Every structure is written in C-alpha cells, then in structure tokens.
Amino acid sequence: xxxxxxxxxxxxxxxxxxxxxxxxxxxxxxxxxxxxxxxxxxxxxxxxxxxxxxxxxxxxxxxxxxxxxxxxxxxxxxxxxxxxxxxxxxxxxxxxxxxxxxxxxxxxxxxxxxxxxxxxxxxxxxxxxxxxxxxxxxxxxxxxxxxxxxxxxxxxxxxxxxxxxxxxxxxxxxxxxxxxxxxxxxxxxxxxxxxxxxxxxxxxxxxxxxxxxxxxxxxxxxxxxxxxxxxxxxxxxxxxxxxxxxxxxxxxxxxxxxxxxxxxxxxxxxxxxxxxxxxxxxxxxxxxxxxxxxxxxxxxxxxxxxxxxxxxxxxxxxxxxxxxxxxxxxxxxxxxxxxxxxxxxxxxxxxxxxxxxxxxxxxxxxxxxxxxxxxxxxxxxxxxxxxxxxxxxxxxxxx
Length: 399
Known about the structure:
5% of the residues lie in helices and 56% in strands. The chain has helices spanning 2-15, 309-312; strands at 21-34, 39-53, 59-70, 78-89, 93-100, 133-142, 145-152, 171-173, 176-182, 186-187, 197-206, 209-219, 224-228, 236-243, 245-257, 260-271, 274-287, 296-306, 318-327, 335-343, 350-360, 364-374, 390-398. β13 (224-228) and β14 (236-243) form a beta hairpin.
C-alpha cells in the first residue's frame, strides 16, 4: 500500500511546476544516558518534508518520511511514513486521502481521546510520537462547527525495542533477570490488520470555550499483553499482544478565562464485552511577566481517574499530575516543562519528567529531556520500567 501511494504522489510532484514545490525538514543527533545501567544510547534521525500546491491553491500533496538509526538497538533503527496524502480544500469541505497523523485532545499528562494513530513506541513510551495512519478523511466546515469523518482501512501494530535496547519488558524479580520475547499479535477481528475502522469528531468554539465530541469504532491501538513463561527452566517471558475491538465515545473541553486554562478529557470505552470510563481534568494558570525579561510561568494541575484499571491498562488510574511550564519569551524560544504524576493509592509509584529546549541561531535547536520512574508493585505498569531513568540530549538542524 505504501509503495503505490509513494509512486502516485512522487509522480504528481515531478510533473508539478517547480515553483509550487517546497522542501524543508530536520535532521539531528541524539544520545540517551540510562542511569541504572550507566549506558549511553546514541542515534541519528531525519525527517524531511515535501509540499506541493497547485496554482489555484485548492489541491496539495504532502510527503513527510521519518528515519532513525540507533547504534545500540537494531529494532529502534526504523523508518516510517508520517504523512503522505493528497488534500483538496474548498470553503465548506476538505477531502484527504493517504497517510496522515491526527491529534485529538487538550490535556498535558494523558491523551484519552487521541485514538486515531498508533503510538511509535520505538521513539517514546509516553504516546507523544505517532505512526502514520492510512485514511480517508472528509471534513465539513460550517458556521455551527466542524465535522470530521474518517475511514481507516489498515491497522498498524505497535513495535517494541529489541534485546539490546530499553523499554523492552525486561524485569528483575528477586535475583533473576527475565528477558521478554514478543510473539506475533493476535486479533479479536478475523480481518486482523484489514479491519475497516471508522471515526467521527465534531468540534466547535463558543466564546471562551472550545469543545470536541468524538466516536471511534475499530481496533484498539493499545494492545493487551498476555505474559507467560512456557518453559519454567528458562528466564524468558513470552508476550503475546492482543488487539481487541472497541467503541469509544469521547469529549474534550478547554476554556480560556484570563490567566486560567481549564481542560478536560472524558471517554467511555466498550471493549471485550465490558465498559469503563476515564477522565483527565485540571487547569493551567499562567503568571505573566514574572521577571524583567517578560518570562511567563504556568502552573499545571491535572487529576487522572478510571474505573477499571485492568481494562484501561493505564498507569494513571488514580493519579495526580503537578507541573510547571516556564517560557522565557526570548528570541531563542527557550522553555522548560517539568512535572510529576503521583499515584494517589501507592506512594511509591510515580513518573517525573523535565523537558527543556532552546533554539541556537536560525537553524538549530537543542533539547534536554529527563524521565524518572518508581514502583514497588509488580502489577503496576510502571514496575517494568522502574530502572529505565534516563537523560536525553538532542541537537536538531532545520533546513
């Protein structure tokens, strides 16, 4: 499927007028330092983008591939087509055909309603990085709101790190270190990857309020992982991903009231003949001009809850997220985000992060990301990564 999209769109680009073709992108070098193992994991990445628009400005083609080479983990060396689509736009509707990334949601600590794209787990475990999703998207734009209809004809499985990488399900229980072998996925639908998923979202703004209502019916992006030890004489855990069918109703709300930004995401999900609800809600309050340079400080507070921890498979079943965002408002776009998600039922379970970035000149960007984990409960999703604390440095060049 990817091959035919690529041939068609590249052919259109080649035949297009030179003036209409725009080329940009970024490439960079990254290094992760894992504290527990005292190990450095270097890698290189590139993400170019080609964009073509016709003379009438109503038709366009976008092509954005991505590739990473990782020196430590062969499985993390991967390629993906993030975007490869044709789009036609008029005053009242838009039609998109191809591969694209769609983001739904407003909250900081968890993205409950965001269900269109598969998580690129090789890039990051926190759900921020996504794989491209084949789709047909029709958008109707009216004065009373925007309606998006999606047909998703192909499902993409989640990929995991290899034996030499990190976040690969290795667990140390007592004196034993158990290695994980991920098996082929099992699907609830007989159509497996070819199951036809559908989705809908209505969004609108009323004064200071922005809201969205969404529905998804199809293959759940987050698999259930069935663990087993088929040979007790070995220290290898066998893991079989199971992709269930689900129906999800979602609501996302955001209100801008002066220095206050109130946010909420609520879902009701039916899966495997059962149902659960989950909520993420909170606020961000910004202090403007906190020093002579005009910097802003935003304080973040969000509560995460769901009523079925096993079905939701989320570490944030009853968690409080507290953090801050400091923005210098300088020419280098310097900023830092920090926060901690604390389990309200288990004091030992938490995940903390620090993310900082700064531009260098007109073409470079420097970022520092740090994550810290802890848990003493084997049933906690954080238990398997409690020894994966790391600091990540990256320098990215934009062209």
